[in-house]
What does this fold into?
Amino acid sequence: MSGYFATGRPAVRQKREEFSAAGTNPAARVPVYTTTRYSLSPQVFQILLSLAGQDRHGYAIIGDVRERTGGDMRLTASTLYAALKRLLDEGLIEELADRPRDDRDGPRRRYYRITRAGRAAGLREAARLESLTAMARGTRWFPSRRHTR
It folds into this structure.
């Protein structure tokens, strides 16, 4: 499987323009490519979830994913950094120019932040997964939710 996508097929991308955070200067427009057709791999989805809450450096992302998944997903450094490079290239995350004030780590750590496009891709993937879960419930492969008070 290559790239972000569980299908292993190339993504169909749609080009759209966004204004940069610097303001509404038309010269500051940057193209952002968003995935419109295929699902994100579980690893990429977990990386986006990790960055949805706060900016993190690579090792912190690895630890957060391991903790959130109860150890079921263990990202290796090579898997993480290959995915981060692709996420950066796609505009789904960005590398921070400045380090956090409370950073006690070495100066070589790079911090990453999810972008609006990355948040949108994560939300689309969450909706896709929720839809699949609803289908599984409909076939009784997955227990329906029980409301308790």
In short: DSSP finds four helices and five strands in the chain. The beta strands are 13-18, 30-35, 56-57, 93-95, 111-114. The first strand starts at residue 13 and ends at 18. The helical segments are 42-53, 58-68, 77-90, 116-138.
